[in-house]
Specification:
Elements: E1 23-36, E2 43-50, E3 68-74, H1 77-81, H2 93-104, H3 107-111, H4 118-129, E4 133-146, E5 152-160, E6 166-167, E7 188-189
Parallel strand pairs: 4-7
Antiparallel strand pairs: 1-2, 1-4, 2-3, 4-5, 4-6
Length: 214
């Protein structure tokens, strides 16, 4: 038997991240769905945002897909509108959804949306938000988990900034007022030295997202 050392491609190919990197990005709303927290069963709205398709990223059917940012806004009385207090106008879920609707150009329809409960309200927002595009300010939070082999895997989980998180695409990119500052602890949350979380964040149990039209 003859041996040869030639013909082996040793180029390391690093797959792109499935998550949106912190920064300011043009994103499409790929999905909107009702969710509840696992412990207290707090109702919420889960908004899945995606970039344009990224080379090297594919779904289980082989289709090109974009990077993802999943934002959950909670709908308890405190989180929704600070128990009806005007002091929560800037950070509460109701205010943030109103800002989002305004920047997407659907504020009038949003204001007219109603629901007998949180789930019905969220379901009525799906057709209003899904497929819409805007520019978003995305922050990041360092996290980790243990894989099946017991190895600690570190990653950065993206999230929408609380304030100044969205603007319409009618604003020129070079005139954007959105910003991401890695040195701002509200924009980038560093992981404390602690035990990693148990759950794999990439094994997310939400509904499948449909790739937006780009």
């Amino acid at each position: 038997m003859e041996f040869s050392g030639s013909g082996v491609d040793t180029t390391e190919v690093r797959k792109p991240s499935k998550s949106v990197k912190p920064g300011v990005h043009k994103l499409a709303i790929a999905n909107v769905e009702y969710t509840v927290s696992s412990q207290k069963q707090t109702p919420g709205i889960r908004i899945v945002l995606m970039t344009a398709p990224v080379e090297g990223l594919k779904d289980e059917k082989g289709n090109d897909i974009g990077q993802k940012c999943v934002e959950t806004m909670w709908m308890s009385p405190k989180a929704w509108d600070n128990n009806g207090s005007p002091s929560g106008a800037n950070w509460c879920t109701k205010a943030r959804l109103s800002i989002l609707a305004d920047k997407l150009g659907v504020r009038e329809q949003f204001d007219a949306t109603k629901g007998a409960n949180a789930e019905e309200f969220v379901n009525n927002l799906v057709s209003l938000f899904k497929g819409k595009k805007a520019r978003f300010a995305v922050g990041g939070e360092e996290q980790s988990f243990q894989n099946d082999e017991g190895k600690t895997i570190k990653f950065v989980k993206p999230f929408l900034l609380t304030f100044k998180f969205v603007e319409g695409l009618d604003v020129a990119e070079n005139e954007t007022e959105l910003e991401y500052d890695e040195t701002n602890e509200r924009h980038f949350i560093k992981m404390a030295e602690a035990d990693p979380v148990d759950d794999n964040p990439f094994a997310d149990g939400g509904s499948a997202e449909q790739e937006p039209e780009w």
